[in-house]
Design brief:
Number of strands: 0
Number of domains: 2
Shape: elongated
Order of helices and strands: HHHH
Radius of gyration: 31 Å
Largest sheet: none
Distance between the termini: 33 Å
């Protein structure tokens, strides 16, 4: 069972930042090596100065957007989807009344004034009322 905690999301965001920095560095190394080849072959290529910052920012924003979409999809697929499946599987077989009786026997809900039977009867009456209302609302939705 995979659970997403703040630590897991932090690790994924750090990995994305590292990947982004590595991709930017590798692209700049390729462009420098290409200009070195051009200068060795003959005429020295002019460096691009006008609009270079804007072009670099556009490229960086595009890379960051793509990486964030990929990371968000991976996080959703591994954590969010799996958690939703686990909750659905748990509540498919969950019996609240059985769980309540188990907790009642262990003394979790024991009232301080000693009126055990009255408290249990009132709780069960309210539980039946809420279940009936849930069934009516579910049938009304269909």
């Amino acid at each position: 069972m995979l659970l997403a905690g703040p630590g897991d999301i932090f690790v994924v965001s750090v990995l994305c930042r590292v990947i982004l920095k590595l991709s930017v560095r590798s692209l700049t190394k390729v462009s420098f090596s290409f200009s070195a080849i051009m200068s060795a072959a003959g005429k020295l290529a002019k460096p691009q100065m006008r609009g270079m910052l804007v072009a670099t920012i556009k490229k960086t924003i595009a890379e960051a957007t793509v990486l964030s979409i990929i990371t968000g999809t991976i996080i959703w697929w591994n954590f969010g989807r799996q958690r939703k499946i686990n909750y659905a599987e748990f509540y498919k077989n969950y019996d609240a009344e059985k769980d309540f009786k188990r907790m009642w026997k262990s003394g979790v809900f024991k009232p301080l004034d000693g009126s055990d039977d009255e408290f249990l009867q009132e709780f069960m009456r309210r539980e039946r009322k809420f279940r009936r209302l849930d069934q009516e609302s579910a049938s009304a939705r269909k």
